[in-house]
Amino acid sequence: MPITIATWNINSIRPRMHHVDQFFADRAPDILCLQETKVMNDKFPGAALKKMGYVHQAINGQKSYHGVATLSRLPLINVEMREFCEKGDARHLEVTVETDAGPLRIHNFYVPAGGDIPDPAVNDKFQHKLDFLNEMKAWLTGDETKGSSILVGDLNIAPHENDVWNHKQLIKVVSHTPRECALLNEVQAAGPWQDVVRNHIPVDHPLFSWWSYRSPNWDAADKGRRLDHIWATDAIADKVDHIEVYRTARGWEKPSDHAPIIARLNVNPVHS
Q1: pTM assigned to the model
Q2: Element (H or E) spanning 265, and its range?
Q3: Residue-range domains of the chain with CATH
Q4: Can you tell me the distance from the alpha carbon of 203 to that of 182, in angstroms, rounded to the nearest whole number?
Q5: β partners of residue 185
Q6: Residue 206 to residues 18, 49, 159, 226: CA-CA distances in angstroms?
Q7: Per-residue pLDDT tens digits for 139-159
């Protein structure tokens, strides 16, 4: 059986547990990587998620802000987390699962949004974002990319022209500025990592995973951005045989402003 991995900025897990349950009932990914869980570890709804089928859990939580969680129906043989920029933020998790193609390492990231002004001289949040990406670039090379690795998460950058609804209008807006896009491309190239979403959905096709709450008619207006990503190392990229942006979730009542992205890998789990 192939392995499915989903990434989803849930934008606070506790009030949206019913959405996680609905998503599981419809797609049931083997591994679900969540960002912006916004809850401390001791308040995380782990028991409910175990009943759902996610009996293996890695949690890196933070009160009211940030937070990532990797939920798995497959055993996790290793769990690690890394702090970036010495800020104490919960923005990364790394887990490993066993497959018939060897160990599969999965990174779950929540990159800082960067605030509103794309100038680090006047906006500390934008400087934080650039610093975070530079640390990613320096770290996600060498040993971190040997073998089969997947990197997922809300990277808060839409790097291609067709990753935003209007390239000309958004080129000076944080998440699509040339400086951010170039730096994200450097992170990807340093691995090297392949953007497997765009391997399957070419860059000439508009593709979004986030739509602002400010747009009440978000579906018809479709003024979105692709802020959520799935990357893979060369050793596993060709095993990704299907990608889906689960846009349905954005239309649920009081949803996250992000939609999940799902990747299917043509490898089989090894249960220990």
Answers
A1: 0.97
A2: strand 261-265
A3: 3-265 (3.60.10.10)
A4: 16
A5: none
A6: 29, 34, 12, 9
A7: 998 777 778 999 999 999 999
Question: How is residue 168 annotated by DSSP?
Answer: H
89-132 pLDDT, tens digit each: 999 999 999 999 999 999 999 999 999 999 999 999 999 999 99
Q: Strand 3-9 and strand 261-265: pairing?
A: antiparallel
**Amino acid (one-letter) located at 85:** C
Q: Would you list the DSSP string of 96-132?
A: EEEETTEEEEEEEEE-----S---TTT-HHHHHHHHH
Q: What is the Cα Rg of the chain in Å?
A: 17
**Is beta strand 148-154 parallel, antiparallel or unpaired with respect to 102-110?**
parallel
How many CA atoms lie less than 13 Å away from 114 in the CB half-sphere? 28
Phi-psi region of 209 (alpha: psi -120 to 50; beta: other; left: phi over 0): alpha
Q: CA–CA separation, 150 vs 145, rounded Å? A: 9
Measured on CA atoms in the order 51, 55, 61, 67, is the torsion positive or negative?
Answer: negative
CA atoms in the 13 A half-sphere facing the CB of 18? 5
